[in-house]
Amino acid sequence: MKIEGLREVNDALGQLPKATGRNVMRRVAVRRLQPIADDMKAHAPIHLSELRESITVTTKKPKSRRKVSEVEAYAGPGRQPQAHLQEFGTSQHGPQPFARPAWDRGKHDLPSGLAADFWDEIKKAADRLARKTARLAAKG
């Protein structure tokens, strides 16, 4: 899913240092994807505990572009070889989908409240920067 728009949010992120802007976007992405990951865990096959425990939310830096306006986030199982076998099935057993149904149930909730989440995180980051600047100024 690619979110475009939110011009004011993007402008506000541009006012922050690049690393801080990326961290804000990562925190919002993780917060928004966590319910989908939780749903995947709840519906993953019970007999494969290592698969269930590997389901997480993580962020990656895009390899080709490192702009402050781009962050990649992922919700799903880690490097578990049985994940796709459970999702799609094999010749020995039928599919036991857990990832796609979780995405289908949760994808519509992702955009709602996204701007509010961004503004909340931007405010927190700006407050942290102000405190840091004040501490450095006090030290002389």
Give a description of the structure.
The protein is mainly alpha-helical. It has one domain (7-129). The protein has 6 helices and 2 strands. It has helices at 7-15, 18-43, 49-54, 82-88, 99-106, 114-139; strands at 56-60, 72-76. A two-stranded antiparallel ribbon has the order 1-2. Helix 2 crosses helix 6. The longest helix is centred in the N-terminal third of the chain and has 26 residues, at 18-43. The chain is elongated and about 70 Å long. The termini are far apart.
Which terms would index this structure?
single chain; mainly alpha; 59% helix; 140 residues
Brief digest:
With 140 residues, this protein is mainly α.
* Biggest β-sheet: strands ordered side by side in the sheet: 1-2
Q: Cα-atom Rg, whole angstroms?
A: 19 Å
* Class by SSE composition: mainly alpha
Mind describing the biggest β-sheet? 2 strands, antiparallel
> Can you count the beta strands?
2
Low-pLDDT residue spans: none
Euclidean distance between termini CA atoms: 46 Å
Helix content: 55-70%
Total domain count:
1
Integer average pLDDT: 84
What fraction of the residues are assigned to beta strands by DSSP? 5-15%
Secondary-structure element order, N to C: HHHEEHHH
Q: Helix tally?
A: 6
Principal-axis shape: elongated
